[in-house]
Amino acid sequence: MPAIPFNRPLLVGNEHAYIDEALASGKLSGNGKFARTCAEWLERRVGSPRALITPSCTAALEMCAILADLDPGDEVIVPDFAFVSTANAFVLRGAVPVFVDIDPQTLNIDPDAIEGAITERTRAIVVIHYGGVACDMDSVQAIARRRELIVVEDAAHSIEASYRDRPLGSIGHLSTFSFHETKNVQCGEGGALLINDPRLVSRAEVIQDKGTDRSRFFRGEVDKYTWQDLGSSYLLSEVASAFLWAQLECVKAITLERRAIWDRYFAAFEAAEAQGLLRRPVVPAGCHHSGHLFYLLLPTAGLRDEMLHALADRGVHAVFHYLPLHDSPGGQRFGRAAGYMPVTEDVSGRLLRLPLWSGMGDVRVEAVVDAVHSALDATVGRLSHPRVF
Ligand SMILES: Cc1ncc(COP(=O)(O)O)c(C=O)c1O
User: Fold this and answer.
1) Residue 381: pLDDT band by 50, 70, 90 thresholds?
2) If both were cysteines, with which of 4, 124, 176, 239 could 150 make a disulfide (CB 3.0 to 4.6 Å apart)?
3) Cα–Cα distance between 292 and 226 in angstroms, integer?
4) For a pocket test of ligand 1, which of 57, 63, 126 has the largest count of ligand atoms closer than 8 A to its C-beta?
């Protein structure tokens, strides 16, 4: 069998037809018919007053940073186990990301660590629902309310996921989604900003369209448009939006398929976990995840690296994930760690993600399962006292 890639972007079939329709419409810039259709779908599905389709989740996070009205030196609390954009978007506005450690079970931001990191300069808390498994949003929201902080949900992994029956992306003041080719629903590069606080909607529209009130002009609310505020070009073209709509129409089937692969991996490695050879993801009660990614935690960083090589030798492309932000050159230059980050440092060295994509099919999934078992025998399994996690 040819090597199994970590990811293969899905094509659902209608992308070409919708792109042809967009081309025929003669309107190819942002916020056209397909972009609005995608936005309205997200508003309904997530339950948000307003969604804006953006060129990436990174762009949507940059819009959040502008909307948060940060002054230079203001602080934003960010998990240390995170994607670079989750912090960098705020650094672009002169803010200081303050890194906090994660919960060892879910790998999401640790609410207890948030409290200790708050200073008089703190303005916002940004959370990531890692792998589409919800953060402890009740605790995060309680802290934010008490301290009057803005909550941004980086829901890049979290389409169709929920927390206590609330869709992820609907809980914070603002939330962001990614439609990058590695995500469940994709258009190559793409994203969305969901504005759950209605007070921020009109400013978000201005920021998205180069700092102008062009959207009001198009709705006939003003007779000309002009520069109003900070902004940039945070619009996704109609061609990419047409592609995205084809994918969003299939999100239920995509999610079911991904969850089925996730469930198969979860069941397949139960015995290995019981033997202390590895640990599987933890999904707390009340969380319905998106099936975005499946990871294993190996006993040590060295064994994780050996497993990556052993899997590659068996034709399976497994990968690591985030490196601790506080330890990166950018993190050290622009951010600050709130204390020590033992969980992030530990987990980031031991985590390995398995291939998981729509269209993998049972044969490839079983080949990954077999390769993991055989690679485990050749690596962790040779230890006389495997670690119990
Ligand atoms: C949690 C998180 N946020 C943001 C991003 C950036 O997404 P995009 O590539 O759409 O900018 C990623 C990318 O994988 C991510 O994992």
Assistant:
1) confident
2) 124
3) 41
4) 57
